[in-house]
Amino acid sequence: MKRTIIAFCLFLPLITSAQNGNFIIKGKIANLDSPATVFLIYNGAINGKETLTNGEFEFTGQIGQTTEAYLTINTKAKSYSYTNGTKFYLESGNISITCPDTSLDKSVINGTNTNNAENAYKAILQPIETRDGQLETLDTGATEAQKKSPEFLRDLEFKNKALEAERREINKKFILDNPSSIVSLDALNSYASYSNYEGIKVLYDQLSPEVKNSPAGLSYAQQLEKMNAVAIGQIAPDFLLADTNSQYVALSTFKGKYVLLDFWASWCPVCRESNPGVVKVYAQYKSKNFTVLSVSLDRINQKQAWMNAIHHDGLTWTQLWDLNSKVTLMYSLTAIPQNFLIDPTGKIIARNLDEDQLAAKLAELFTK
Whose C-alpha in 152, 170, 249, 271 is 20 to 30 A from the C-alpha of 137? Predict the structure, then answer.
């Protein structure tokens, strides 16, 4: 049940590779008619707009490079809307986009080499996504008694960790098998969600020169530099955020202690499943120069849900609120939960520790 942070956005970084030619996009979205309108977005701008007739639309044009593009729809008006969309690769050739209903995330996209490669990648991941959905159903359908059961939550956490490990291995294999495909950057993004800088960098280095030198590859290289800033061995960047009482607290306030910097949100099931383990380790080591500092990604309209989750999960340490995602970006996060273990000097010494790993690491540190 991975929860990504960065949502669909008009101005996402571009993914491109060298290519020139004409494109034709033909599609059908259910049987919608005017005023339902679709928008073609690429290169950070709206480059096409078509009102549907019996669900059908067509876009034509020229493209200089294979480019990550989006199709969005407003079913009730001719004005732009970005809440309902699907990603595809715009390149020379004929592209087909069909959708059985108004939810574009169900679109079937075919017709060019890169889109077919993307389809193959999604097919490889489909069994993982199916099991992910089953785990999410198990979590959302849990009774209140189950939500308070450490055994139930620990079992869910274990199953999620196993699933994410499988997802990482699938992404790693796809990248190694397809180093010359721009789609491997998608796989690398997925792999990076819960991985350390060192492992991500090794896979990035396996990509072909063409992919690495593409605008997206160069952009990813810049992102890697930011990831390196919060890699193990680096000094954790300081920040200042408000707590539950609207008082501002800096990370540097805790210098001199071992600190588990924990990123989470009330709406993140995996975060909530891992909270009992953190509570347990905190209770064991809070008197030994160790503390936890939590940073929530809840939005402004989710404050009460955040407060309720803190109370429900028994989180008695300092809780901070990253309302503007400033710290999320500073720490190059793409998914939660994630954590950083910081030593008394402010250096990051471990990342993404579960309950057992955290307990073992602290036992090692305090034994020394």
Answer: 170
* Beta carbons of 2 and 335 less than 8 angstroms apart: yes
In our burial notation (b when 16+ CB lie closer than 10 A, e otherwise), range 10-22 reads eeeebbbbebeee
Collapsing DSSP states into helix, strand and coil, what is residue 257?
A: coil
Residues 199, 259: one domain?
no
What's the pLDDT at 10?
35
C-alpha torsion sign, points 206, 210, 215, 218: positive
Establish whether the linkage from the previous residue to 35 is cis, with ω within 30° of 0. Answer: yes
Pick from 335, 153, 342: nearest CA to 256: 342
DSSP 143: -
Q: Is residue 249 domain-resident?
A: yes
Q: What are residue 86's DSSP bridge partners?
A: 71
Q: Would you state the pLDDT for residue 200?
A: 94
Domain that holds residue 173: 115-228
Same domain, 62 and 147: no
State the Cα–Cα distance between residues 355 and 64, nearest whole angstrom. Answer: 50
Q: Is 334 helix (H, G, I), strand (E, B) or coil?
A: coil
